[in-house]
DNA sequence: CGACCTATTGAAAGCTATCAACTGGGGTGG
DNA sequence: CCACCCCAGTTGATAGCTTTCAATAGGTCG
């Protein structure tokens, strides 16, 4: 289940100053668990390409997808030297890993991570609003708008790389409720579903109103 | 409503190198809104002392308290140069503010903020799990444990500086549900309430089981 | 002591979860 | 190449939890 396709070590000898020496790039297939919640947190990671989700579990098995990551986003954060979340690829992905000690040595890296932490923290704030205060329909509308921002390539058809269960775990719902919400959005003409995982937003205005602007 | 008690500007001339010049300390009373969501984001702030809550609003007025901050925590984050959240003091507080440009000039500041961003992001991940997957009773238990970690001063009696409404907005519930949860915890003997805002945790083991470890 | 605000408690409604059956598409194997 | 199987998704019915609406209690401050 845990197959790493390729691992390339960075070329420290060729690099000038200010570039961290101990980093490496990984090519990972889709649906691979890169990190396990609770494991000792040795390295910090960045998504270079592809999509990654971070998940947390309760002792009884309830799961929450706490964050969806794309290129530039950082993960592998630690609480008491243990990874706070598991990380699983949603698509084939390229990931860079850094030793945690590199943060002190490499100001450029630290600065880049700082910027991304700020952005990710803002996204988490929005997500708290979604999880705490929005209805099921609003959550799904918000989710789709978030995946397909204003100016989007591909003629407006979005390929979902998540199952209904994964979307549900992200939005704090059940898969049935997510499915019903998709059907309701379709029924109202706000979206069209080519297939279960191919969505087109038909009425962005109404979607934004549902999602509480955005 | 928006009363700033005192503002002391840092003493840049006395400082040696590596200390940001354009920072200032604010003394703020309780229940003061320090930042408004949507305002132009000029400065980044740190809590020195006291407690601050960050809130977000939906267009129809639904509110979510997205984060609770204590000493060392950072706020004033921006999305498109506008503050992503409002910030309101829960207690009298001391706050340091920095110009955003100081982040590039002052590596010590950047490094400190980086560490705190990481911690706050981890807390947000936990909070997503709470908001997405926990029942009302579990949320309140989690909340109380979070406010009163293992080794705590004061003989185990905690003073809540939040109203039921604020707790509800933090936990994604209504104030009535929060009140019922408190009553249920009391009924089960897990907590004792001296007054509505004075809590003693009687059975930490059961609380932790409810909150999903922690 | 009374006014006012916060908190508590009760009853009913509403939304989502749960349980269950059915459908459809993709892949495998005959 | 086609049939079958299997898994993801959809849809329906019911239960359960939280919200909503409403009335009461408690505490603080003037």
From TrEMBL, chains A, B:
PROSITE patterns: CNMP_BINDING_3 (PS50042), HTH_CRP_1 (PS00042), HTH_CRP_2 (PS51063). Keywords: DNA-binding, Transcription, Transcription regulation. Residues 134-205 form the HTH crp-type domain. Residues 33-76 form the Cyclic nucleotide-binding domain. Pfam families: cNMP_binding (PF00027), HTH_Crp_2 (PF13545). PANTHER family: CRP FAMILY TRANSCRIPTIONAL REGULATORY PROTEIN (PTHR24567), FUMARATE AND NITRATE REDUCTION REGULATORY PROTEIN (PTHR24567:SF75). This is Cyclic nucleotide-binding domain-containing protein.
């Amino acid at each position: 289940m845990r197959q790493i396709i390729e691992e390339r070590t960075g070329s420290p000898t060729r690099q000038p100053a200010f570039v961290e020496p101990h980093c490496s790039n990984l090519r990972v297939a889709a649906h691979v668990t890169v990190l396990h919640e609770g494991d000792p947190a040795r390295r910090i990671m960045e998504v270079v390409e592809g999509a990654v989700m971070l998940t947390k579990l309760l002792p009884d098995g309830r799961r929450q997808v706490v964050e969806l990551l794309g290129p530039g986003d950082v993960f592998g954060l630690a609480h008491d030297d243990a990874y706070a979340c598991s990380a699983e690829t949603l698509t084939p992905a390229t990931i860079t890993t850094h030793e945690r000690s590199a943060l002190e040595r490499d100001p450029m890296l630290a600065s880049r991570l700082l910027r991304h932490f700020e952005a990710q923290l803002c996204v988490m704030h929005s997500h708290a609003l979604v999880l705490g205060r929005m209805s099921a329909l609003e959550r799904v509308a918000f989710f789709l708008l978030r995946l397909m921002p204003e100016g989007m390539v591909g003629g407006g058809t979005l390929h979902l790389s998540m199952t209904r269960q994964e979307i549900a775990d992200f939005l704090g719902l059940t898969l049935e409720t997510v499915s019903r919400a998709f059907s309701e959005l379709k029924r109202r003409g706000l979206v069209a579903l080519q297939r279960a995982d191919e969505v087109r937003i038909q009425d962005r205005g109404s979607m934004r109103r549902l999602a509480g602007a955005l």
